[in-house]
């Protein structure tokens, strides 16, 4: 008899509740859970394909260990023996920084990724940490760190109550939203318009989101910081600055006025290709709206002035009094957040506490740029001290496709002394590993959104246990990461439960000493004994919930949250709309919002220089497709084909000028390399801009993603050489990259294309 099980979808940031139909151990259908307190039944094609994603026959079933150059199936004991030997040899010989760690995107979509990487990193003591954040949202972390003193204090647009939304470089109709967790983002945008609100979209492409907008501004890629600075200029010039209730919490309002003096709408018009009148209208509309929110995403972050653009997004929210008020942009409060401490000065946010060895890139949030991973492996000497990365741990990461210059990284990975990948697939990156540790498919894993609940448009909490028991021979990803931590740190063979016990003991030890904690002065041993849950990860979730802002404080607030209470609410618990929280979230040294932090002021001259730039030629931007997800979902037949293809979007004017016709192969040349790809002629890109999606290029030998290999596409990141970065955050520049096009004869296939001179 088929049964139903609930499971939060891990496939994008929207975190929809799914109702899975399960026959035996197989997921035969997935629909939206209508009773889910947050998603109310919404589902997209990826969620509807949960069963196909879960049962993909190419998923690895057992660990792989390299013997005589070949990866072969092995038992878990043997695999962890190899991990312990491989990692310890490098750490003992070359020191902790010679062991690198790469954390990829799916870590924010798993319980394991939320709980164990911090323990692993603390145990390793390595500074060689690289994550997907530096090809994504690091500029936002840096600007939040500088403005609010906390890199994770990211204001979220109050989608359901705002009167005016200004959306910059985001396409939630395809992506379903990012750094703004909102199941049915499209429906929420439609509701905004239906209640008389306005939607403005700034994007070089006329996306499905742009088509929904009242106004679409097709800006020249990479120039948003100039547009936003000009909007700030207009607010001052036309006396539209009005902080309202925020005023007592903000320092630096006059300093910002002076800092944007040069950025008049007229001065930025030619660079941005946005008429001065439009820029003024954008600023006036923002100031006039009863409530408004400015929200920027990928197109505002993965550009040369990513941190400045991210900063200006919040400067606009602040100067119009929209930060921290309903209908504006607010700080969510998740159930597993730490108990809020009383407001007051904090330790502030430090940037560049150390630098990368070869390129001298400053760390941000303890991370080095993913763009610099290859050089940290393949370059023996550099201005910094220390040794190259000789061993690598990758968890849920595929940087060979997602980071700049995969060919160089490919070679670098081959030269490592040892590499271990925690990954369900033998993919472009994991194929280099000496040991691959495959996590179980999602139906066999629990789910809770540690990260996304801190970015959600409504406070709520949900937890789903595995929908299907672990298959024989499988190991939970939580246990894989606990064992990996032990193996990497010389405690191989220890019971993995000791990792959770240690975290619980340390957390409780700190809490009972903290006068602001609800458990101040209590006995940590007694508290630990009260934790419920079937296993270590569940007890840790119980601990976080009970110590959190809605928690029962182990009896201090008897009606508060516990894991038991959450389990009694399988569709989740609604914790209400976002509420104003300032000044509590601020952790700057002043205890205020610091509107013009020194590193930002120091980067403004670079933006001033950009006023004079007039890029001739074509620039490249990316795009996402609703039925795709970064680099690992092209192996699911139900999610590929149709318009989900790796083609180069070219505007008809450019196609005419260059002699490119539909479906014709075109060689695209960038600073780091070239790819050959079929053209798709469409006026959805503005003239002067071409667009290629990322995550393709599944034609490397040694992978096992059979369906993906039949339509491999090309790796857009091969056009980059990794040298283009936003200097403050180390974020890769992935959009607005200059490229050249060479049309090739229609019969040319990508593999057979021979070099021809550039025009
Ligand atoms: N040109 C260009 N490049 C981009 C982007 C862009 O817009 N343009 N976007 C960037 C962004 S925003 C991001 S986040 C990065 C993403 O880049 P990565 O962080 O490298 O993420 P993915 O490409 O999604 O690859 C995820 C890996 O995790 C594995 N995986 C899937 N599920 C699980 C699981 O449950 N557990 C484990 N352990 N592994 C799992 C997959 O098999 C795959 O190997 O790409 C970036 N690259
Ligand atoms: N279907 C699907 N959903 C996903 C993903 C996926 O791969 N597929 N990936 C997930 C991940 S990891 C993330 S981070 C999010 C990202 O979520 P979004 O930020 O919404 O990502 P995109 O859809 O790439 O939208 C970025 C938009 O920026 C535009 N753009 C490019 N350059 C510029 C510029 O210089 N200025 C401006 N103003 N716009 C520019 C592009 O044309 C594009 O439409 O999506 C997540 N959801
Ligand atoms: S929108 Fe995202 S979370 Fe919701 S069903 Fe689709 S992939 Fe899953
Ligand atoms: Mo991302």
Bound compounds, each kind once, are: ligand MGD, iron/sulfur cluster, molybdenum atom
Number of strands: 28
What is the chains' assembly state? single chain
Largest sheet: 7 strands, mixed
Beta fraction of the residues? 15-25%
| Rg of Cα set | 25 Å
Number of helices in the DSSP assignment: 26
CATH superfamily of the largest domain: Dimethylsulfoxide Reductase, domain 2
The unreliable regions are 750-759
Give the termini distance in whole angstroms.
Answer: 65 Å
CATH class annotation of the largest domain: Alpha Beta
How many domains in all? 5
Mean pLDDT, rounded to whole units? 96
Fold blueprint:
Elements (H helix, E strand, L loop, with lengths): L2 E6 L8 E7 L2 E7 L12 H4 L1 H5 L9 E4 L2 E4 L2 H19 L4 E5 L7 H5 L1 H8 L4 E3 L6 H11 L7 E2 L6 E5 L3 H4 L9 H10 L3 E5 L5 H4 L3 E3 L6 H14 L12 E2 L1 H7 L5 H8 L3 H13 L4 E4 L1 H4 L4 H14 L9 E2 L42 H6 L12 E5 L3 H4 L3 H9 L3 E5 L12 E3 L20 E4 L15 H12 L8 H17 L10 H7 L5 H12 L15 H5 L5 E5 L15 E2 L3 H13 L7 E4 L26 E3 L1 H7 L6 E6 L2 E9 L7 E3 L14 H5 L14 E2 L4 E2 L4 E7 L16
Parallel strand pairs: 6-7, 6-15, 9-10, 9-13, 10-11, 12-20, 15-16, 16-17, 21-25, 22-24
Antiparallel strand pairs: 1-2, 2-3, 4-5, 4-17, 8-14, 18-19, 21-28, 22-25, 23-24, 23-28, 26-27
Helix pairs in contact: 3-19, 5-19, 6-15, 10-12, 10-13, 10-15, 12-13, 20-21, 20-22
The structure holds ligand MGD (2 copies), iron/sulfur cluster and molybdenum atom (MO).
